[in-house]
Design brief:
Residues 231-242, 400-416 have a biased composition (Basic and acidic residues). The protein is mainly alpha-helical. 51% of the residues lie in helices and 5% in strands. The strands form 4 sheets. The chain has a 3-stranded antiparallel β-sheet. A two-stranded antiparallel ribbon has the order 1-2. Strands 6-7 form a two-stranded antiparallel ribbon. Helix 2 packs across helix 3.
């Protein structure tokens, strides 16, 4: 017999099978479906192992032989059991499938049992089992004296309609899978048991896990009588013939066991002390869990959202007050925290008013005007001196010799001192002080500069290495052009502040590195004059 277990799935109406039980029986010779028809089952011991051999009437009449089955083997006719025996709407075949499904899938696994039956839903299977088998007056057997007068054709028609409606029913709604954090917010918390995977003082059970007591003579351990009302004492367990051998072995094992030792006073006191210590540790564990449950600490997201709304000062105060939660109830602790926060707010306000009084501010209008003026001055100072603070901060960090490109370092360092040079020349904002000269004591390549060049770099706030690059660029371009280099062209060669370029140009001319002819000088002065006139216009 070929048995194919089927799991019912939702199918369109045009391909849904009307009669489709939980499994399908096929002929082992021609593989014809015999689920809903009479079949011949081989009764020979050779073919009975496993599911046996099922033969359709056609193969049986033709004397077909296959595998180990021979035409001369004994046989029996298996008819359809589609008639009620225990319930009017349940056939005998469904009753057999129900019992078989329970033995295979396990009692209580109604979904798998319903799939095995194939013609019933999960709820119908559970209800039928409880009514017919559990609530039977002849429990644990069902009622065997019930008779039904049901027309077989009508019974089969009802079964077909029921199976057809099940085949066309929509599939059950599947719950979307959820990840562990959405089930409970605390990863190690088990909501169904109200416990944690690792409890507070998780090693408390190590004190008593191997603790055993002997006979306590002080407490009458040798004279305790057995309870006469105990069913085990009144009716001692009887052993069947099959268990006689095991019972003898158990009696022999009990005889070989050593006698129970006697408990001394010291040993008993020590063990009772261990039990008391364990009880105290378990009590502390329960108190800690009670605090978590009463304060709602397991609602992590809610607690975290409330903490985010508090200012930093309030967070610090609440964190310092947490040890007092063990000494108060949940309501008293909330009131206590609110009062402490209100006190802190009052102290802060009193300090502010005392500061206003020392400043001579007596009314709310004076305080408002003073705060506005202070804010305006702070904004003006921040905007006005932001660049200078940045320059001083970079200066305090020292020279940076880790730049991969010397040219990039030259332009960047020179550009940082641009604002300072404008301030020294009077081109910066009015009232701005000129920056202090740059300290080049620890600067690299300082020994390559003359004293005059060191003074120039200190005043212009240019490091020695960028200055040497600027100097080399101007001198090389001057030599390449045969001495025909103008000041304006020098400004285009060096991408730094034009004022710094002019100062470096003048220094190189005065030092003799650049020899400017009278024609070039006159042309340069004329060009500068025209540029200035155009700017004024």
């Amino acid at each position: 017999m070929t048995v194919t277990h089927r799991k019912r799935q939702h199918q369109p109406d045009e391909i849904a099978a009307v009669n489709e039980p939980g499994f399908q029986i096929e002929c082992d010779g021609c593989y014809t479906d015999l689920t809903h028809s009479i079949r011949i089952k081989c009764a020979d011991p050779i073919c009975e192992p496993g599911d046996g051999v099922d033969i359709c009437p056609t193969c049986f009449c033709g004397g077909k032989e296959f595998k180990k089955h021979k035409r001369g083997h004994a046989y029996r006719v298996v008819e359809l059991h589609s008639y009620p025996i225990f319930s009017e709407d349940w056939g005998a075949d469904e009753e057999l499938l129900l019992i078989e499904g329970i033995s295979l899938k396990g009692l209580g696994n109604w979904k798998a049992i319903a799939e095995h039956v194939g013609t019933r839903t999960q709820e119908e299977v559970e209800e039928h089992y409880n009514v017919v088998y559990i609530n039977s007056r002849d429990w644990p057997l069902p009622r065997m004296d019930i008779e039904f007068n049901v027309d077989p054709s009508e019974f089969q028609e009802r079964k077909r309609r029921r199976i057809s409606s099940m085949a066309t029913a929509p599939p059950p709604h599947r719950v979307a899978p959820t990840s562990a954090p959405s089930i409970h917010e605390i990863a190690t918390f088990l909501p169904g048991r109200l416990e944690f995977e690792h409890e507070t003082d998780n090693d408390a059970e190590d004190l008593v896990k191997d603790l055993e007591f002997g006979i306590c003579l002080e407490w009458g351990g040798d004279s305790i009588m057995e309870d006469e009302h105990d069913p085990d004492v009144k009716e001692p367990p009887t052993r069947s013939e099959d268990q006689s051998t095991d019972g003898a072995a158990e009696d022999e094992a009990e005889e070989n066991m050593p006698p129970v030792p006697l408990e001394t006073e010291e040993s008993l006191a020590f063990k009772l002390t261990l039990l008391e210590m364990y009880s105290q540790r378990v009590e502390k564990r329960h108190e800690a869990k009670a605090i978590m449950f009463d304060r709602g600490l397991l609602e992590y997201k809610k607690t975290q959202a409330a903490d985010k709304k508090r200012p930093k000062e309030e967070k610090d105060i609440v964190h310092r007050l947490r040890p007092f939660a063990k000494l108060q109830t949940a309501e008293d602790y909330e009131v206590f925290c609110a009062d402490i926060l209100y006190e802190a707010m009052l102290r802060k306000r009193i300090t502010e008013l005392q500061q206003y009084r020392r400043l001579g501010l007596m009314t709310a209008t004076d305080i408002k005007k003073w705060e506005d003026d202070t804010q305006a001055k702070a904004n003006m100072s921040r905007d006005f001196f932001s660049s200078e603070r940045l320059q001083h901060r970079r200066q305090s960090q020292g020279p940076d010799s880790r730049h991969a490109s010397v040219a990039d370092s030259d332009g960047r360092k020179a550009y940082e001192g641009e604002g300072a040079l404008r301030a020294g020349n009077g081109t910066g904002p009015p009232g701005r002080k000129a920056p202090a000269p740059l300290n080049l004591a620890n600067s690299p390549s300082l020994h390559l500069l003359t004293p005059a060049e060191q003074t120039l770099c200190s005043q212009l706030r240019i490091l020695p290495k960028p200055y040497l690059v600027i100097k080399e660029t101007l001198v090389r371009e001057y030599a390449r052009r045969g001495g025909k280099l103008r000041r304006r062209e020098a400004r285009d060669l060096v991408k730094i502040d034009v004022n710094k370029t002019s100062r470096v140009w003048d220094f190189l001319v005065q030092a003799g590195y650049l020899r400017i002819s009278d024609i070039n000088a006159t042309a340069a002065v004329s060009q500068d004059t025209n540029n200035a006139a155009g700017f004024v216009k």
